[in-house]
Amino acid sequence: MSAVIESKGGFRAWLNKRLPVDQFVADQLTGYYAPKNFNVWYFFGSLALLVFVMQIVTGIFVTMHFKPGEATAWDSVQKMVREVPYMGIIQPMHAVGASFFFIVVYLHMARAFLYGSYKAPRELLWVIGMLIYLALMAEAFMGYVLPNGNMSYWGAQVIINLFGTIPGIGPGLVEWIRGDYGIGDATLNRFFSLHVVALPFIIALLVGLHLVALRQVGSNNPDGIEIKEKLGKDGKPLDGIPFHPYYTLKDIVGVGLFLTLFAIVLFFIPTFFGYFMEAPNFEPANPVSTPEHIAPVWYFTPYYAILRAVPDQKMGALLMALSVAAFLFVPWLDRAKNKSIRYRGLASKLLLGMFFITFLVLMWLGLKPAEGLYVMLARIFTALYFAFFVLLPFVSKADGNGPVPERVTYHAH
Amino acid sequence: MPIKFARVALALALVFGAGAVSANEGGHADWQREAENEVSNLPSLQRGARNFMAYCSGCHSLRFERYSRLCEDLKISGEQCDALLVRPGDKRTDYIRTSMPEKDATEWFGKPPPDLSLVARSRGPDWIFNFLTTFHADPASQKTGVNNLQLPGTAMPHVLASLQGVQNAVWQNAEHKGDDGAVTITKEWKAFEPGVAGSLNPKQYDEFVRDTVNFLDYVGDPTQVERQSLGVWVVLFLLMFTGIAYMLKKEYWKDVR
Question: To the nearest whole angstrom, how far is the Cα of B196 from the nearest Cα of chain A?
Answer without folding.
Answer: 35
